[in-house]
Amino acid sequence: MQDKPKLILASHSPRRAALLRQTGFDFEIIASTVDEAGCRETDPVRHVLALSALKAQAVRANVKEALVIGADTIVSTSGMILGKPGSREESCAMLERLSGRSHEVYTGLTLIGECGDQVSGHEMTKVHFRKLDPWEIRDYVNSREPLDKAGAYGIQGRAALFVDRIEGCYFNVVGFPLSRFFQLLETLWPPGKIRMAMGLGEGTDE
Amino acid sequence: MQDKPKLILASHSPRRAALLRQTGFDFEIIASTVDEAGCRETDPVRHVLALSALKAQAVRANVKEALVIGADTIVSTSGMILGKPGSREESCAMLERLSGRSHEVYTGLTLIGECGDQVSGHEMTKVHFRKLDPWEIRDYVNSREPLDKAGAYGIQGRAALFVDRIEGCYFNVVGFPLSRFFQLLETLWPPGKIRMAMGLGEGTDE
What is the predicted ipTM? Predict the structure, then answer.
């Protein structure tokens, strides 16, 4: 019998951890200390790929016997990247900008295997907000939910009411594109090893 | 100060209740005893609208001082409606049918207000499954997650890994299209009353 393979999520986001847990994976969390604001890349895809790689590499530097997962998510609208709002006023301004129109959410993923092999991928989802009433924006900002979230909203919280349609991967909007992750993982690990990490039996490859 | 408005969800689905709770609404659950299998309607939209209305009306018959919400969700592929699988074999067959292609999820919603006014609406979301490995289907069926779910999967559970993209409302796929619900509610209740039901202040309409 093999040792159970080890996965490390290089992120302190409770939403990412909840998604990975939901699909049965057993993993450890070691958040990286990469400064997100230090990334000057203005192209959304290059931005999330660069930051996800930096986060994975930072954690990988201290841990060898595990596969490390780095992720970065941003919201982009009309060519402008929206990060986490710094104040109530900034939250209001971001939500007014998103109201009644579509924006894009990008997540970059980087996986570094035990031998140092590195794979990256990204996901883009179009998200459409219905036209919000001013009281909805005010109440939502008062709830303080926007403050730690790119684009000033969390689709898995109260802002679920704002989103009338999306095109693409839903879990990408929450911050961790599960299906893309699985496909990247398949390039580094055989099925038996993936099944073991998911707590499914002894890992026999059939 | 007005009495707090009352909402009743006419459904025993824990997933619907969790979604409605997530957005801050306070409500009661009174499941209807409508026999879903008794609906012979083969058009998906008419099917979910008819059943959501029957469920709301059944509960409404016993409760007057509240707004009642009925909902029904089905999965449809190539003109065939997939209900809840009856066995492991049926679960496997449904998942094989969904693997590597798109299907549609429909939810009908019916709201009956305190005065008896009734509004209905529906939502359709296209869901695409990536091509599944046989071991993924086998493991998923062994988890018993498919058994109580239309189409034999739950996007909010382990099957999240199977879905690579959707077009439309995500919450519809879970079983309760939140944004559509809010828009229907706005036709029956003024903003101040909605805010009270969401636990947001005294319900002053501004």
Answer: 0.83
